[in-house]
Amino acid sequence: MTSYVFRSDPGRRHQVLKRGNALSVDGTTLPLRALDATHYTTLNGPRPAHVRVVAHGDAVYLQLNGRSCVIERVDPTRGSATSGAAAQGSSSAPMPGVVVAWVVQPGDLVQAGDALLVIESMKLQMTIEAPQSGTLEALPFQPGQTFQRGAVLARVRPEETPA
């Protein structure tokens, strides 16, 4: 099951599962029949509906009976670089790639600028550093796993300051 959001309504998530010739959206099953790689028919009430679907990256462009919309896949490992508080303490992927090795383990104390993990992208290896001093909370990707640009590669909880 994959979560999606409509670009026009990002606050509402939809659960989608495709099995064989059926598509389940938020628990409602729709029969699908492929006409070609991007054209499908389904039943919209008693009448058949024509659907055109083109996927590009994490976005799906959908046209249903002449109406268009953009649907984006929700990636739970991807952080938002624009949400200041959420992104604080997170190191995000500058480009797609693969994790080569962890340098430290979750639970370790790190200083700002310490090496956390090594990634590889387009035959270039680079070290991802701690954005702040604190405790390494998570390294969501194991060595050998691939990730997309913007994915959160590490989260560091800030040091507690004594009161």
Which characteristics define this entry?
163 residues; mainly beta; eight-stranded antiparallel barrel; four-stranded antiparallel β-sheet; 16 strands; 2% helix; OB fold (Dihydrolipoamide Acetyltransferase, E2P)
Total of DSSP H or I helical runs spanning 4+ residues: 1
Main pleated-sheet profile: 8 strands, antiparallel, barrel
The name of the CATH topology of the largest domain is OB fold (Dihydrolipoamide Acetyltransferase, E2P)
Domains (count): 2
Strand order of the largest sheet: 1-2-3-4-5-6-7-8
Tell me the Rg in angstroms.
21 Å
SSE pattern = EEEEEEEEHEEEEEEEE
Would you identify the CATH H-level superfamily of the largest domain?
A: RNA polymerase II/Efflux pump adaptor protein, barrel-sandwich hybrid domain
SSE topology:
Elements: E1 2-6, E2 9-19, E3 22-25, E4 28-34, E5 39-44, E6 47-56, E7 59-64, E8 67-73, H1 84-87, E9 90-92, E10 97-102, E11 109-110, E12 115-121, E13 124-129, E14 134-138, E15 146-147, E16 152-158
Report on the structure:
With 163 residues, the chain is mainly beta. The protein folds into 2 domains: 2-73, no CATH class; 84-158, Beta Barrel (OB fold (Dihydrolipoamide Acetyltransferase, E2P)), CATH 2.40.50.100. 2% of the residues lie in helices and 58% in strands. The protein is built from 1 helix and 16 strands. The strands form 3 sheets. Strands 1-2-3-4-5-6-7-8 form an 8-stranded antiparallel barrel. Strands 9-16-14-11 form a 4-stranded antiparallel sheet, with no helix packed on it. A hairpin with a 2-residue loop joins β3 and β4. The protein starts with a strand and ends in a 5-residue tail after the last strand.
